[in-house]
């Protein structure tokens, strides 16, 4: 079996020694090429070339951003659901690894590699549905408003040399909340053919559950959403402190739903459209894509086969 291992050497938990161990283990069973990414977009370019070359297995070793790039590169050269597309393998190497954890993969990269090799040997895998925000695929979440502001600020601090930790995300989320709470709501949300809902501050879109992780603690925003359903949608009606704290507490508590009187919630959504009276930031899989005035979100079932 021909395989390409795409390694992000800048990922939080990726080391040269670990990469070598993983590559050696994979090369013992696969005809393997290893590509270390050198810049943003390199993983996508590598995945696109692998699809065009007829590779059987594409393995992403890095964080969720690396997985996202690989997936987007795959679908720039092929169609979702095609049986001729490579199977996707994931060896986690980032700080959150939401996609890998949602699939039930081990957090340890070496254990995940052995799990991947067993899946290849047994021919086991599953088809996973994905989300799409305009022309950008996402594997686990996307959002407009609060979460996108948090992602943009954390990226800014990372570029200045700050270590990305759960505490940094928590502090950044709090500071972004106070800024947004005093703004005029700018978002209108239309779910399917329903009447648009106006005057919203943020819209959170899930492709699976949990939404993300705060360290080891899952943040469950849409418990009825999975890789086998449509998208989950959550949007708070207001940014007042009490309902927001209530939402956050319930999301961290477990599988309890946030209180529906203070929010808009939907599960198994196939299509939604977000429009903004002023351009707002959009994030997908923890990557800020800049500002948009209108975004269409789609659910694409059985888009990619993953070795698990």
Annotation keywords:
8 helices, Rossmann fold, 4-stranded parallel β-sheet, 2 domains, 308 residues
Using the 3D structure, state the CATH architecture of the largest domain. Sandwich
Number of beta-strand segments: 16
* The CATH topology of the largest domain: Tumour Suppressor Smad4
- What's the domain count? 2
The helix fraction, in percent, is 25-40%
Q: Globular, elongated, flat, extended or rod-shaped: what is the shape?
A: globular
- Mind telling me the CATH class of the largest domain? Mainly Beta
Q: What profile does the largest beta sheet have?
A: 10 strands, antiparallel
Listing every helix as H and every strand as E from the N terminus to the C terminus, the arrangement reads EHEHEHEHHEEEHHEEEEEEHEEE
* Beta-strand share of residues: 25-35%
Number of helices, counting only DSSP H or I runs of 4 residues or more: 8
Mean pLDDT: 93
Low-confidence stretches: none
How would you describe what is shown here?
The protein is α+β, with helices and mostly antiparallel strands and 308 residues long. It has two domains: 2-124, Rossmann fold, CATH 3.40.50; 138-302, Tumour Suppressor Smad4 (Sandwich). The chain is built from eight helices and 16 strands. The chain has helices spanning 16-27, 42-52, 64-75, 98-102, 109-122, 146-159, 166-181, 241-253; strands at residues 2-7, 31-36, 57-62, 87-92, 126-133, 136-138, 141-144, 187-191, 197-200, 203-206, 212-214, 217-219, 231-236, 263-269, 271-284, 287-306. Strands 5, 6, 7, 8, 9, 10, 13, 14, 15 and 16 form a ten-stranded antiparallel sheet that branches. Strand 15 (271-284) and strand 16 form a beta hairpin. The two termini are 16 Å apart. The model has no long low-confidence stretch (mean pLDDT 93).
């Amino acid at each position: 079996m021909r395989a390409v291992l795409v390694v992000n050497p800048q990922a939080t938990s990726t080391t040269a020694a670990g990469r070598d161990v993983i590559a050696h283990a994979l090369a013992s069973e696969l005809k393997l090429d290893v590509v270390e990414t050198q810049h943003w977009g390199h993983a996508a370019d590598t995945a696109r070339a692998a699809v065009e070359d007829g590779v059987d297995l594409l393995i992403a070793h890095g964080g969720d951003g690396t997985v996202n790039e690989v997936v987007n590169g795959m679908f720039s050269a092929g169609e979702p659901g095609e049986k001729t597309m490579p199977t996707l393998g994931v060896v986690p190497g980032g700080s959150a690894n939401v996609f890998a954890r949602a699939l039930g993969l081990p957090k340890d990269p070496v254990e995940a590699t052995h799990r991947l090799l067993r899946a290849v040997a047994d021919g086991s895998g599953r088809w996973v549905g994905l989300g799409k925000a305009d022309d950008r695929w996402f594997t686990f979440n996307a959002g407009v408003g609060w979460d996108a502001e948090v992602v943009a600020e954390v990226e800014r601090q990372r570029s200045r040399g700050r270590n990305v930790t759960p505490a940094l995300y928590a502090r950044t989320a709090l500071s972004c909340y106070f800024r947004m709470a005093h703004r005029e709501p700018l978002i209108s949300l239309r779910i399917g053919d329903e009447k648009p809902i106006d005057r919203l501050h943020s819209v959170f879109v899930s492709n699976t559950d949990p939404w993300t992780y705060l360290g080891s603690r899952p943040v469950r925003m849409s418990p009825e959403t999975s890789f086998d359903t449509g998208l989950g949608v959550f949007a708070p009606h207001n940014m007042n402190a009490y309902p927001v704290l209530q939402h956050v507490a319930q999301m961290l508590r477990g599988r309890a739903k946030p209180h529906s009187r203070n929010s808009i919630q939907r599960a198994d959504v196939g299509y939604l459209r977000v429009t903004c009276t002023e351009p707002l930031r959009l994030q997908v899989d923890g990557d800020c894509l800049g500002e948009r005035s209108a975004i269409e979100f789609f659910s694409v079932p059985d888009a990619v086969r993953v070795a698990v």
